[in-house]
Design goal:
The chain has 345 residues and is of the alpha+beta class. The chain folds into two domains: 148 residues, Diaminopimelate Epimerase, Chain A, domain 1 (Roll), CATH 3.10.310.10; 163 residues, Diaminopimelate Epimerase, Chain A, domain 1. It is built from five helices and 19 strands. It has an eight-stranded mixed β-barrel. The model has no long low-confidence stretch (mean pLDDT 96).
């Protein structure tokens, strides 16, 4: 049979979050940087994202990463992150899954006990340290792009809720961070639908009422997601807290979320709750865990920030091919609001 398109994919999950990795079937994408390539795909080549993430091939609780050659002299490779509704400049869970796929398929040679290299994400260069043994990538630590706070204790008026105090911070994406306990949430699975519904309303209200433009890249200029966080508790292993991130068009990140964790580290550091060298164990709504560490303080075009490092593990789940029959009536898929929630007004 002749196929119009065939994409080779490695399925990988981290903390329960499925982030597939394209390893074949796509040639290089125009653009000098990964941010340029991301924008090209968004404006000129979005059929690839739709083909892979829309039904009947994709699902709402899924992301896809496209590995590409990088022109950056320090980068071993680059990658572009595709989510259900849009492209994002950085994602921690997608980074961990991409690194695991690169190493366990041999696209980047694995060195035991530790493999180090750098990847170019659309948001910038990230340094990778992967703990490896017996051919397995056991854990990935990446030094993220700088994280910083746009504003603490910002008041937003949320439809159906009223005034709410949030923090706004960048960790590779721009987040509205919300104290879950003040809204009566414990961040447990039975609350998932309510968290999603409220989180999307908060995000859209905050994006309108709390303008946020990255000081070094004005094309990163809106709140992407809502992060609900629980109290910080002191444990034998260190500071620990629960969190969950609402991903548009309306579902929860199954993992503890790397960029969300980075944004939370920036907020905690700005409040004096976390010093350089200290870590936060971040648990997801399904009890999977990342460890976030404040590595150093940095300056982002005059804005004080931090360099966060995030550690997590991933597991390969599948090797498969997505194909397109020339006669398929849904070459870029479709969406139905029974499982793809409509965007709130």
């Amino acid at each position: 049979m002749r196929f119009k398109r065939m994409i080779n994919v490695v399925g990988v999950h981290t903390g329960g979050e499925l982030n597939e990795v394209i390893t074949g079937g796509v040639l290089n994408v125009p653009g000098a940087t990964m941010f340029d390539k991301m924008n090209y795909l968004r404006t000129e080549g979005d059929d690839l994202r739709k083909f892979l993430l829309n039904e009947p091939r994709g699902r709402v609780s899924q992301c896809v990463n496209l590995i590409l050659p990088s022109a950056h002299p320090e980068a071993a490779a680059g990658f572009v992150i595709m989510e259900s509704e849009y492209y994002v400049p950085m994602s921690g869970s997608n980074t961990i899954c991409t690194v695991t796929a690169l190493l366990e398929t041999g696209m980047i040679p694995m060195q035991e006990p530790v493999t180090t290299f750098k990847l170019e994400a659309p948001a910038g260069l990230v340094a990778i340290t992967a703990a490896c043994a017996d051919g397995k990538c056991q854990s990935v630590t990446f030094e993220n792009v700088p994280a910083f706070v746009f504003g603490l204790n910002q008041t937003v008026d949320v439809p159906g809720l009223g005034e709410l105090v949030i923090d706004v911070a960048y960790g590779g994406m721009i987040y509205a961070l919300v104290d879950a306990t003040k809204l009566g949430f414990q961040i447990v699975p039975k609350e998932a639908r309510a968290l999603v519904e409220l989180g999307e309303r908060i995000k859209h209200a905050a994006a309108r009422q709390c303008p946020a433009v990255h000081p070094e890249n004005p094309e990163i200029n809106t709140i992407n997601q809502t992060l609900f966080y629980g109290p910080v508790v002191e444990t034998r292993d260190g500071k620990r807290s629960r969190n969950t991130v609402v991903v548009s068009p309306g579902r929860l990140d199954r993992s503890p979320c790397g960029t969300g964790t980075s944004a939370r580290l920036a907020v905690m550091h700005a409040r004096g709750e976390l010093r350089v060298g200290e870590s936060l164990i971040h648990d997801s709504i399904i009890d999977s865990t990342y460890i976030g560490t404040v590595r150093e303080t940095v300056d982002v075009a005059g804005v004080p920030g931090i360099r966060p490092a995030i550690t997590g593990s991933a597991w390969v789940t599948a090797f498969h091919q997505y194909v397109l029959d020339p006669s398929d009536p849904f070459p870029t898929g479709f969406l139905l609001p029974d499982s793809w929630p409509a965007t709130p007004d």
